[in-house]
Amino acid sequence: MKKNGYFQVICGNNETVLKLFFPCNGGKEINVKEVVNYLNRNDITFDVYTLNKGFKEAFASDRDEYQFVLNKETSPEIRESYIFQVSPDKMMAMARFYPPSEKGERLKTQEFVDFLTKKDIKFGVRMAGLENFFLNPIYCTDIVVAKGQQPRHGTDAKIEYYFETDLHAKPTLKEDGSVDFFHLNTLNHCKKGDVLARLFKEDPGEYGINIYNEKIKPRNVKPAVLKYGRNITISPDRQVLTTEVDGHVSLVDGKVFVSNVLEVENVDNSTGNIEYDGNVMVNGNVCTNFSVKARGDIEVRGVVEGAYLEAEGSIIIARGMNGMAKGTLKAGGNVIAKFIENSKVNAEGYVSTESILHSEVTAGMEIVVSGKRGFITGGKVCAANLIQVKTLGSYMGADTFVEVGVDPNIKQRIQELQKAMTENKKEMDAIQPVLKSMAQKMAQGVNLKPEQLRSAQRMMQKDKQMKQKQDEYMDEIESLQKLLAESDSAKVEVSGEVFSGTRISIGDASMVVKNSMSHCKFIKSRGEVEMTVL
Fold it and tell me: pTM to 2 decimals?
């Protein structure tokens, strides 16, 4: 058993002796400073030279015990003693015991327990350990005499979705390098009775108790609820969502939607314009001057001409779009098309295609132009994070402009929001003393006048609204700061050739390519657009 070294005073008639007991089995050595503090506490005379000399001789000996004279005085016998301390978090009490002098009196177990009672220590007293100590004492060693119970921290609520919620899913490439637009698998099909989501409720945890018998609250946990739209059933315990119909399932802003699919052969004179609260499937083509609007996704198996397509979800065009300078695509999700010509495209997600010709294309995330052709020629193409293309511009000199990065005005908007938060906080701080005073009066049983009560209610409502506004400001700031961070790393990658005359802009910096280059990447560095090797 490991045992620390310790010491004992021997009180004789004409001298006082210090006896040292050395550690065994890896225990700690005797601390000279601890000995000095002990002698001072018990008013035992000594001089530093004698003490240091005795320790030096003791450590040089090979004995298990060693003693030497401290002084030539008669000292009274010393009782067994201890130093007591409580940890800052009030979860543990420690005692370090020191032996009585050779003929001194030992402490009793009950005497020490009474001391703990006087110190208000009521929980976690280790009686078995104390009784064992007083039977078999271990000195100069920290002993836990009382220990609290830590709280058991709970877990936040969690929702598991049993369908693909990743909006970044992209079409796969064929072996020949072309994109397989007929097998995109970007829609989440569901059948009647399918379980869509399950809520695992929060675990609040359990209170802990410190050695003073005070409760310790576990950390706060976040609850959650299942949010859903039509065509969905929720279980009686409100923990399981099930679809009532066959259709497509999607997650929008944390809310589960199931939509039926409207399927038509073509969008032309036989159908007229289409506006549908769900997904739309067009097996053929969308003809010029017609429009398709969907609350879900739009999938076209053929081509789109000079038409208008708008979807809250994604737009998928298997054989591409020739907009004839008037065709428009607008998607709350992604746009995937075989090719894009003479069209205007706006996607909040990404755009994936094999070619872009004389078009205006904007993406909230990235634009990837891949496949056999993989070119951007003419027009203006903008993305927040990345434009990836094989061939950029044209040797014929068609004006081609590509831009990545966010609007520099975002920084100004962040400053405006921070100022608004400061003003809102000042107003909140101004009404807090009034609310606190009202609460104290009510707690003391003071009868408030009806007008005072109405005033207090109005202020409480206003305080609640301002706190909600503060949270909204912070959410917007975090969202904008994320955009700023992404802007710094925005880039244009050209795996083939970029032609001279192409204009490239990253954030608030821009450049015009003077000489054609191959296999390069354009990034923002030190406030300028720079070209590096891909």
Answer: 0.55
